[in-house]
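#help-structures
NK: newbie question, is this the right format to request a structure? protein is Transforming growth factor-beta-induced protein ig-h3
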Amino acid sequence: MALLVRLLAVAGALALGPAATLAGPAKSPYQLVLQHSQLRGRQHGPNVCAVQKLIGTNKKYFTNCKQWYQRKICGKSTVISYECCPGYEKVPGEKGCPAALPLSNLYETLGVVGSTTTQLYTDRTEKLRPEMEGPGSFTIFAPSNEAWASLPAEVLDSLVSNVNIELLNALRYHMVGRRVLTDELKHGMALTSMYQNSNIQIHHYPNGIVTVNCARLLKADHHATNGVVHLIDKVISTVTNNIQQIIEIEDTFETLRAAVAAAGLNTVLEGDGQFTLLAPTNEAFEKIPAETLNRILGDPEALRDLLNNHILKSAMCAEAIVAGLSVETLEGTTLEVGCSGDMLTINGKAIISNKDILATNGVIHFIDELLIPDSAKTLFELAAESDVSTAVDLFRQAGLGTHLSGSERVTLLAPLNSVFKDGTPPINANTKNLLLNHIIKDQLASKYLYHGQTLETLGGKKLRVFVYRNSLCIENSCIAAHDKRGRYGTLFTTDRVLTPPMGTVMDVLKGDSRFSMLVAAIQSAGLTETLNREGVYTVFAPTNEAFQALPPGELNKLLGNAKELANILKYHVGDEILVSGGIGALVRLKSLQGDKLEVSSKNNVVNVNKEPVAEADIMATNGVVHAITSVLQPPATRPQERGDELADSALEIFRQASAFSRVRRLRGLPPVYQMLLERMKH
């Protein structure tokens, strides 16, 4: 039975055809782009490809989907034209390109694909044409007519003046002794040429561009009876030196040579692999302030990071760049490599002065500006490129610059410039102490911070970490940008000036005359010990005005019943710490009373139960206080009838409050409060 089932399965698969049994080979990026071009051109007939032509040039590109819609190459506009796909030709009177090109030998195929100059130079040699017309299997990377025409006159003269040696060798270097189609052209591979077995470097990029010694493959896979022809946009030459050897030869790399030697990177640049070196010239080093340059050159680790930031992990020829892309360096950072017309750009800057110097283990582009990674910078240097210059200037004025420029392992909490739009604090002892509490005694990374973690500052304070759904905060200040990790220090950009906790919640309330009535109420309700002990509380603290705004009947009931008073006050206390930066669209915070508070934030205004918070983020060692101008009512509470007289317990609370608040705050009060003052005089 089992055998019958297997036989039926095989029979079914055969009936469905090969596609059902075996997946077809994956198409190469070049083939995918060619397929897309053919798809875009099908309305013009069979085997028609859409081609993007750079306006004002003869450069053409098979288009991918993104380029098709953008209609740009290196930021320059293109026009769409339609032509026969490689390997096909038109037939008079018929639509599209229905006929396959007739197969002929390599020599004749050169004329068909637009490389008649290569054909002409082949004729001048004694040996090459018979090989191209005879039996065998070859691949030729044939320069276009424009490629030959663009050669410097002295180079072309040296070739044609000795056709049976120089020209013959040059042409043989463009040939491989077997048929190689684009699906075999893998990124980073080397093909053995027919000139002294010298290598030809192949790079096949994800955007479909294929380069041969950094010459772009224009049209590929033109079959011949004795091989295949690929049309390329440059005349290529042999490559004999590795990257390190090229650095040693070029005079403009004198400083780079010394730096590479000091960092011990010689073995990397002369070893196997395929790298891109963005090689800073002597001029690039001279642009850096001498103090910065000497510091980096004298620090092996910073120097190694600097140089590794100039080495890309793969070979990147200029012709492969048709739009911006992110590439990773050996240092681990990401550079944005792009182009603007004929110029290559790094991080948006056209700093490449010479491109595509090919080496056996990669390619070199000369750059005239150093790419200093964050990991080689001081905190001062990191801040110079961030939106925290005002804060850093305060540290400098306060005499704390050595902490930001030395070898001390610290993390700087630097508020954004916008925090100081209304001015900066005067530099005095208090300000210096506040700034010291913005410097943490360790070099941190935000991704390793956790909720409840304690951090120690140079000012001696303990700061707490709060992790919320969409924010990471240290006390009242939340991190507003990605970390910048320097050589010794890390920069955390924050959304406000940090205020370290100063005592318990009760200490905070007692120290602020706005809360004198609340303090008296807390004491009367027996909650003083709760708000003094260790914990994590969020207190929405009604000000004196909030109590005074209550209808007399409600105030009388509230202050005359200790149990009810405690219930109301507990409703103002959340059971976790919630700073304003941790509040999203809506947070439901459980209170000590049991019901939940609805806390929201919009346009930098915090609301609790839809009532605005007058002042947020007064930090305490066991919580945070937010001042509010109304007394919150739990859901089950209902307003009661007003009374004209205050209970005796209420009177006692107001007597306690007088110790914390000045009488001037009670002037112009409603009759019930005037009566209270009269009674308090006796």
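mod (FA): yep, format's fine, and the tokens are attached above. The first helix runs from residue 2 to 16.
NK: thank you!
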